[in-house]
Design a protein that fits this description.
mainly alpha; 207 residues; homodimer; DNA-binding; disordered C terminus
Chain lengths: 207, 207
DNA sequence: TGAGTGATTGATTGATCAGTCAATCTATCC
DNA sequence: GGATAGATTGACTGATCAATCAATCACTCA
């Protein structure tokens, strides 16, 4: 309602932001609601004024971010550019998301995307939609004769997204170096590797 | 000690097997120790006779299986066969493990391998060792001039293992079809895609 | 000014569950 | 047969924590 600057501190936002930090640090199951409240500098009960449950805080975080990603993929797919560019844009978006807010990406991947039980189950539809959209991009490339037609598109989408997620996991676990240039190289390498494996014709050596 | 047939029922094993089913069904955090005991047809307290904690049951399951896999990778690497065959053997082993005991693989992936907090942390060393071994195979292929030298071996290992794990996750989530022939095709496709992307020379079109 | 609305507080409740332990059972050996 | 050791039982304890709620506070508008 009010656009007045400085007016009311947005407690809801503060709680969400605090939750990201706490979930990333301790994990959803291991942290207490009071940890989130403390981190947000807010009373315990206030969380329940804004959210019906601890779980709903996580759901909100996930849906907020995942929605942006789905919209981005749809938009990229509409553009008349080559597959490599489309997949490159998706890889860039996800990796830049990590660069911009590693804690949030950690929470989404660890607590939702990779949690087959609990939350993964709840958001299966959203997750599946991402695979479906990427699969569509692959299918089109196959129809254009750019990608091999004998590889299942869903499968290829899974491989592509899986490779990116695994690299993020590597960063999250501290298994891979994550300097500025590592992130940029990762974008190229994921696209290079996956497209290289999917394309029909041998890549033209430009070196 | 005794090899007498039928003699003593192995309660420890019964508890471990029951735990696999319960963890797969409900998840480690969501299930109660009593669920495991009930599933094993054993009294609550007996679990604590064989294991110091609920957590240690999961640790045991993971280490048992992961150890077999690491040993298998080492063995494959010793053989004087081409990279494709080595990576193919690894993919086969993991996918066959899933075929043979999908619940166990689900538990290992969902509760350990992909759980950056909690258990992933504990077993980081073991997990890292797998990446390292696969990375070594890649490095050798690079030295032999079979794989592109400009791609980080650790990164390639991550991509390879990530693709497999993602496909397993697809099966676990029910996102990909998992008939006999799907499993076999997956082995080929993972190796095909990843090697295709990593190899120097264009793949010889055999079609 | 003061009534009304919604934000904010944190002590309390109620339920859940991991882990303990004293008692009982079974097998084995002298 | 009876003594010892280990296996097995499940009621119980103690701690934890999500969620509730009655009370207080801050702000708006008439």
């Amino acid at each position: 309602m009010s656009t007045r600057a400085k007016a009311v501190p947005d407690r809801r936002r503060a709680i969400l932001d605090a939750a990201v930090r706490v979930f990333a640090r301790q994990g959803f199951h291991a942290c207490r609601v009071s940890d989130i409240a403390d981190e947000a500098g807010v009373a315990y009960g206030l969380l329940y004024h804004y959210f019906p449950s601890k779980e709903e805080v996580l759901n909100t975080l996930f849906l907020e971010r995942w929605g942006v990603m789905l919209e981005m993929i749809r938009e990229v797919d509409r553009k008349p550019v080559p597959v490599r560019e489309k997949l490159g844009a998706i890889a860039s978006f996800i990796i830049d998301s990590y660069r911009h807010d590693p804690d949030l990406m950690k929470v989404i991947i660890v607590e939702v995307t990779r949690a087959a039980n609990s939350f993964g189950q709840t958001h299966l539809g959203q997750i599946r939609e991402a695979y479906r959209l990427i699969g569509e991009i692959v299918t089109k490339a196959q129809q254009e004769g750019i990608f091999k037609a004998d590889i299942d598109a869903e499968f290829a989408a899974m491989t592509f997204y899986g490779a990116i997620e695994q690299v993020l996991t590597g960063w999250i676990f501290g298994l891979l170096p994550q300097g500025e240039e590592d992130l940029e190289r990762a974008k190229q390498m994921v696209v290079e590797t996956v497209c290289g494996g999917l394309e029909c014709s041998p890549p033209i050596s430009s070196a």
